[in-house]
Design goal:
Layout (H helix, E strand, L loop, with lengths): L11 H12 L4 H9 L5 H9 L12 E9 L2 E8 L5 H13 L5 E7 L1 E10 L2 H18 L1 H9 L3 E9 L7 E9 L6 H22 L3 E10 L5 E10 L11 H17 L1 H21 L4 H11 L10 E6 L2 E9 L13 H9 L5 H24 L3 H16 L4 H10 L7 H12 L7
Antiparallel strand pairs: 1-2, 3-8, 4-6, 4-7, 5-6, 8-10, 9-10
Helix pairs in contact: 4-12, 5-7, 8-9, 9-10, 9-12, 13-14
The protein binds (R)-mevalonate (MEV).
The site of (R)-mevalonate has 8 residues, from helix 9.
């Protein structure tokens, strides 16, 4: 039966058995393969299982290091969880390049997060607006029991605004609240406060006999344009050095134009920003943060002026090449996976236990560095040179190439196009036999 009730109630073994019987042709070798990815330590495996539901095994991802990052005069090695070829190599190149030119400078531009209560009220709207200063006091008072600990840590609710949204939908209003959640990402804290706002608002409206209120949604907003870090690199143009035959002046101008193109053209901006998130997401995942939230926010931020645009910027003034990024990053260094996932714990240790503001700045550097590497490759030798070596290795691994076959291929493909068919043909020539598709 390809349909089942109560799958979540089965044991892990039973879940796998059901899956193998119904979707994996009853293949016991596949079952064993799934089990082979379980962690050898039963307690660690139990922890991993509990991060999600209906877990049957672990999904492995490379955990890599990009060393040599000098950020605000402190050395870092960046942990990255990513599967894409050449991203870590590019990142490491960029780290070294800029660390030899004064390093990365970073700053926090803001740490405010946002949550909203969306509601409708069919009553006297003017009265709601007039009384809102008092209502706000009541809401703040009523959430003291939730905010107490956060306030002890220097955070809490910063403000609550009443937003009249009736131009979009009759009777639609919002409470738009801003928060500082210090070292936690804060979604749970914010949602708890918002739901309490919702209860209180209902009670106030009932008490005042104002009419019908309907609380539609109480939820954190992942758009945090004021929770942002800036990372910058700069140096005199001549310090950029020669790239092969290309002078630093020509390189700097081509690079500036490449950034400018992403500022004005959404097609290019999307790919440009995707490359930035190659670096950012890899760090966000390695440090146990929510990469969906971070990406969603970044793309909205990239559209904040009405057209999707580049997250990085470049200027050349008085012979100084400057390249920077402003990136919204709602991340946490306490709570969530940060103290639970064994590899996240190690990632945090590698980063010397940053607080949330430090982690924001390091992630902004990762985005800037990754973008620099991609643009440098594209404006000089082209992206394929770096990509192709990794692509070649992936294909060779697919065909179970030996060490000597790989060495031969590396030389053979120096001046040839890498594709599955060209690699297969080369291997068939060496092996003297046809290779079946595996
Ligand atoms: C590939 O993952 C990322 C790039 O396409 C980024 C870019 O084009 O800037 C190389």
């Amino acid at each position: 039966m390809k349909q089942i009730n109560g799958y979540s109630k089965l044991t892990k073994d039973q879940k796998i058995d059901w899956l193998v019987d119904n979707y994996l042709e009853g293949n016991q070798a596949t079952k064993e393969e799934l089990i082979s990815f379980w962690h050898r330590d039963i307690n660690t495996q139990k922890k991993l299982d509990e991060f999600s539901e209906n877990t049957i095994t672990n999904y492995f991802f490379p955990f890599s290091i990009a060393p040599n990052f000098l950020i605000n005069n402190k050395w870092y090695a960046l942990p990255m969880a990513i599967e894409e070829s050449s991203v870590v190599a590019a990142m490491s190149m960029s780290g070294k390049f800029w660390s030899e030119r004064g390093g990365f400078k970073t700053e926090i531009l803001g740490t405010t997060k946002i949550g909203q209560v969306h509601f409708t009220l069919d009553a006297n709207h003017q009265e709601l607006k007039n009384l809102f200063p008092d209502i706000k006091k009541q809401l703040l008072e009523a959430t003291k029991y939730i905010t107490h600990n956060m306030e002890q840590r220097g955070g809490g609710i910063q403000d609550i605004e009443l937003m009249d949204m009736t131009q979009h939908e009759p009777n639609y209003f919002q409470l738009k609240a801003s928060f500082d959640t210090k070292d936690s990402m804060g979604a749970n804290f914010i949602n708890t406060c918002l739901e309490e706002f919702g209860h209180q608002l209902k009670a106030i409206v009932a008490e005042k006999n104002w009419g019908n209120i309907s609380i539609i949604l109480c939820i954190v907003s992942n758009y945090t344009p004021n929770c942002t870090a800036r990372a910058t690199v700069e140096c005199p143009i001549e310090n950029l050095g020669f790239f092969g035959q290309m002078s630093p002046e020509i390189f700097a101008e081509k690079f500036r134009l490449a950034v400018r193109i992403a500022e004005v053209d959404p097609h290019r901006a999307t790919t440009h920003n995707k490359g930035i998130y190659n670096g950012v997401d890899a760090m966000i995942i390695a440090t146990g943060n929510d990469f969906r939230a971070v990406e969603a926010c970044g793309h909205t931020y990239a559209s904040r002026n009405g057209q999707y645009s580049s997250l990085t910027h470049c200027s050349i003034d008085n012979g100084i090449f400057k390249f920077w990024i402003d990136l919204p990053l709602a991340v946490g260094t306490v709570g969530g996976l940060t103290q639970l996932h064994p590899l996240v714990k190690i990632a945090m240790q590698i980063l010397e236990y940053p607080n949330a503001e430090e982690l924001m700045q390091i992630c902004a550097v990762a985005g800037l560095a990754q973008n620099f590497a991609a643009l440098r490759a594209m404006t000089t030798v082209g992206i394929q040179q770096g990509h192709m070596k990794m692509h070649l290795f992936n294909i060779l691994n697919h065909y179970h190439a030996t060490k000597s076959e790989k060495d031969y291929a590396l030389n053979y493909f120096k001046d040839k196009i890498v594709s599955f068919s060209t690699v297969r043909t080369m291997l068939e020539q060496i092996r003297g036999e046809k290779i079946g598709e595996s």
